[in-house]
Amino acid sequence: MITLLAAPAAPATNAGHAQLIVAALLGIAAVVLLIAWGKVHPFLSLILGAAVLGVVAAMAPDKMVSSFSAGVGSTVGGVGLLIALGAMIGGLLAESGGADGIVNRVVGRVSGSALPWAMAGVAALIGLPLFFEVGVVLLVPIVLLVSLRTDVPLMKIGIPALAGLSVLHGLVPPHPGPLVAISSLNADLGLTLGLGLLVAIPTVIISGPVFGNIIARYVPATAPAALLPTRQPAAAAPGPGGLGTAGRRDVDGDLLTDDDLINPGTGRPGAPVDDSGTETARRAPKFWPAVITVLLPVALMLLRAIGELTTGEGTTGRKALDIVGTPIVALLAGVIVAMFTLGYQAGFSRSQVSAVLGGSLPPIAGILLIVAAGGGFKQVLVDAGVGNLVADAARNASLSPLLLGWLVAVGIRVATGSATVATITAAGIVAPLAATLDRPGVALLALAIGCGSLFFSHVNDAGFWLVKEYFGLTVGQTIKSWSVMETIISVVGFLGVLLLDLLF
To answer: Which end of the chain offers a freer environment for a tag, N or C, measured as fewer CB atoms within 10 Å?
Structure first.
């Protein structure tokens, strides 16, 4: 059960309660309207929303700027490095063919009723280091092909794959949303990761294989022939979301081309050359090394959390676990291991591995900017005293912090269509409540916000259109399948958080 500790800090502004409420509402409304109606990029929308909030709250201009800048700096410093390292692991997993190998190995060994469960498991596994859009681009062609060859309804295996990706994206670090919530609330990353995995497992099962089996009867989708995978490997295939070489840049800022990953002398896919120009054989990364590489950062961070619960503070073992389980160390170790198990194992030369690592960064630039601006918006909320006002209201109304965090995230998600914006804004609003909670309570609050940020994706969400086009659905079919699935994830995940709250 959540334990209340100390009262939140005093408000940082002399504005009255009514003025702060109006400031918060107008600031959030400005963000929502600029994104949903004005089609302004979320990065600019968050900056302008913070300005509206500060002006209405009567913050001094220099205080407003310094507050926003401090929020940007702390967020990028705490979250940006982790997102970049996670993207590097995901880039090597995609470009080397390691993700394809994991999918083919698992899917090739199951059939019939076990296929949706296997697809959900594979999606959850490769969804750990990959952003949602990249995971969709990787998995959907396999889903389409498997559905065609096995005569299993497309939705029956497509929904489990999407559920596995979406749940991991919303609840488990090192994805941007969970990292932002953890940073804003000062939650323990290892503990949040462990609890997030506990919530994720039943959530994936219910929203994936169980719901997929039901919705397949009502949404008779057919695999679009144009999107069926060809023999061209994923490493050379252009695609959205950062997959392949299209639109990617190397460490020097030059656009990556197929020549970076294919021998220009032969033109054969999968025939890279080493640094001396000698052609080397292209090899698919082995299954278990690829799986271990994906799980390594998660395992190290979980070991740190376990060490905090089982070993004495100051012991040698505890100190070692604290170091290797530090998020930046764990993810850096994952990148270094991935260079060997995924990059060099696939036959990439040193320069090619460097190009893949560098090429994985430009696609996340937009995400980093949104996260940074969201951190600034959050800090203005906090410094203006809005968070303390919300905390006081929640205590007086005896409203659960978990329910409040979930409801705020739900409202912003439905209005803006952005899970990241919903997470950032909700975390900033309820951040003072975190100071009144114990360690498990803060971790559960971060997860509650993550669950709320996934609620009912619809036409203002880019993910909605991505799923619609890849599965060849109508708008109505997409709402019946994808939108309902996202709502199930949000509700079931939140119920799981409430259950853990009773246990802790």
So the answer is: N
Residue type, 451: C
Instruction: Report the distance separating Cα 237 and Cα 3, nearest Å.
Output: 52
**Residue length of the chain:** 504
With beta carbons less than 8 A apart as the criterion, state whether 171 and 181 touch: no
SS3 for 82-143, per residue?
A: HHHHHHHHHHHHHHCCHHHHHHHHHHCCCCHHHHHHHHHHHHHHHCCCCCHHHHHHHHHHHH
| Among candidate residues 71, 64, 47, the one with its CA nearest the CA of residue 12 | 64
Structure tokens at 407: 């409801």
**How confident is the model over 241-267, as a mean pLDDT?**
38
Q: ∠460-78-166 over CA atoms, to 5°?
A: 35
The whole-angstrom separation of Cα 121 and Cα 23 is: 45
% of the chain surpassing 90 pLDDT? 23
Question: Which is it for the CA torsion 17, 21, 24, 30, positive or negative?
Answer: negative
Gap between the Cα atoms of 133 and 138, Å rounded: 9
At 5 the pLDDT is: 35
> Which one-letter amino acid corresponds to residue 367?
I
Sign (positive or negative) of CA dihedral 187, 192, 195, 200: positive
- The CA angle 104-110-116, to the nearest 5 degrees, is 90
Question: What's the rounded Cα separation, in Å, for the pair 27 and 58?
Answer: 13
pLDDT digit string, tens, across residues 285-307: 888 888 888 888 878 887 887 88
Question: From residue 202, how far is each of 234, 291, 492, 496, 499 by CA, in Å?
Answer: 31, 21, 8, 8, 12
Read off the tokens for 134: 């990249």
> Whole-model pTM?
0.71
Cβ pair 368, 83 in contact under 8 A: yes
- Asked if residue 466 has pLDDT above 60, the reply is yes
Before 176, cis peptide (omega within 30)? no
Query: Which is nearest to 274 in space by CA: 361, 354, 360, 359?
Result: 354
